[in-house]
Amino acid sequence: MAVNEKGILNRLYFIAGCMFVFGIAVVLKLLSIQYLQGDKYRALVVEREVKNVTIPANRGNVYAADGSLLATSVPKYNIAIDAVISPADLFEEHIKALCDSLSGYFGKSSGYYQKKIRQARANKNEFYALAKNISYSDYIRFRNFPLLRLGAIPGGLIVNQKTKREFPMGGIAQRSIGYERFDEDGNVTRAGIDGAFGVKYLRGTNGLRKKQKIAKDKWKPLTDYNQVEPKDGYDVYTTIDVNIQDIAHHSLLGQLKFYEAEHGCAVVMDVKTGEIKAISNLAKTKSGNYYEKRNYAVWESHEPGSTFKVMALMAALEDKVIDTSTVVDTQKGVKRFYGRNISDSHHGGYGKISAARALEVSSNIGLATIIDEHYSENPKRFLKRIKSWNLHEPLGVSIMGEGIPDIPEPGDKKWSKNALPSMAYGYGLTLTPLQTLAFYNAIANNGEMIKPRFIKAVKEFDKNIETFEKEVLIKKICSDKTLGEMKEMLKNVVVRGTGKKLYSKNFSMAGKTGTAQTEYWMDDWKENKRYISSFAGYFPADKPKYSCIVIIHKPSIKKGYYGADVTGPVFKRIAQKIYTDTPIVDEIELLEVKSVSTEKEYEAYYETAQTYKTIMPNLIGLPAMDAVALLENMQVRIKVELEGSGIVKKQSVNKNVKLKKNQVIVLSAS
After folding, report:
1. 525, 419 in Cβ contact below 8 A?
2. Phi, psi (deg, nearest 5) at residue 177
3. pTM
4. What is the CA radius of gyration of the chain?
5. For 45, 59, 430, 595, which has the most beta carbons within 10 A of its beta carbon?
């Protein structure tokens, strides 16, 4: 019995010893956590409950060449209240006045807001939303409400700011300017100028602000200020001319609607500088409306059709295998090449005509015969000439997503004996509209090929950060003799060739029509034929100022599909509206809205502003982009916030008030 009791006692001693050792271990661990690793774990707690939140910088503005605003970042604010943080006496002192102010802003009763905020306080709700997506002027109004005017502590004010990109010109050129879009992973990407120059210039530097976690996915600012202030991006000044852009947009839009086309583009380029003055890209929606879906002028590589005949004939002239008077037999409108028929659009053909006339009437047979007869034994000679103009390479424009040209060579899978005659009239190879335009612009520019350019300068206020000059790609594409002959032929295309419907004795143009079959490889093509209509050229014909290309895809063949009918009128309308006062039957409705009274007030203001340059004008009734440009050109440095687009309806600073440095001015437009 004594032995058993002794065994039990030994077990008890062992268990007690183990418990004692375990207790010592726990105490040692607690001491270690408290004194040796305490800072580490306290930092983890703080990291989980408090973090630095990125405050996005305002993106720089995008301006037209004349300073008109094309894109700007407008701040938007979400306002909430921490219903717990205010001391009881302070809360009770201001709650009724706060709710009266909320009632005056939203329209609901003051009692409604008292009930909601008191309930939030009872539930220890540290984040009760008051307003979302409000403007800067409304944000200032909220900051002055009772209780909230005391700030985050002890007033409970919670402010979250974000920015929204606004386009004063609406949908015009929005794709080229660059709106936000989302990829498959939900990440924000930007097209156009905003995308090309975003990282280096427009984006700016983000700031930091400490926020505390108060609930799942809810954070509130700990202070009224930022730890690191965001630095706004630089402003980008484009080459776009808003008047020419407006003309090109509406000219293209009207023709797309009339011909019920799938999509199209129009580009206007300054001959001497390569500056893009207008670029419009429009596509049809399911509802029948048109919008800027893609930048077709830069991105879309397609068979150019008859506009490539200019390159083909210039190659033959420059290689001296023919001259403009060389006779070519186009037969009766159909000719067989290597087992395949090539036909002309003119029924019965043109018979025997000169090479120059073959271009003027856009004879497929004529150009195919010239190129095949003189290059079939050595096609690489023809391709060498084409490549000397860099037509096989992208232009390298600043806007991302440029299409890659495709010009096949012997040995490629798509090469055959028919490749060369097909290439002569624009089939079997692909170019983008901008690449084609650059070549036509070189003809207008006495042989100098220039890279198309979208940007003039990058600025911070009035300080130049970087300027962009013209970039010459090829000093001379051909001899003066070939150049003179080509200019004369392009002029005659309009005077007596396929573009003769466009001829006007009051205004000269030069260019080439184009009509190309598309998707002809598809099984249903014979029952549902589809075409690409184009016109490329320059104006005036003798002393060119602008080059232009217009492309329209898949017009309704019931209404027409030839380049002279579909795209030629758009080219002519753009040229006439830019350069002459000649009235056009289908007059374009201009976006600019003028107010006589506003203009008179502006004239009065202008006289004063020339002396002081610091006085606030009356901007009510002016187009928003003009109003912003006017303010930003004043001598005193100010910050302009634009809400909406269209015509200015309200301004936060009254007219004739002397402006202060860094003062914020809010313009509301609709």
Report:
1. no
2. -70, -45
3. 0.71
4. 35
5. 59
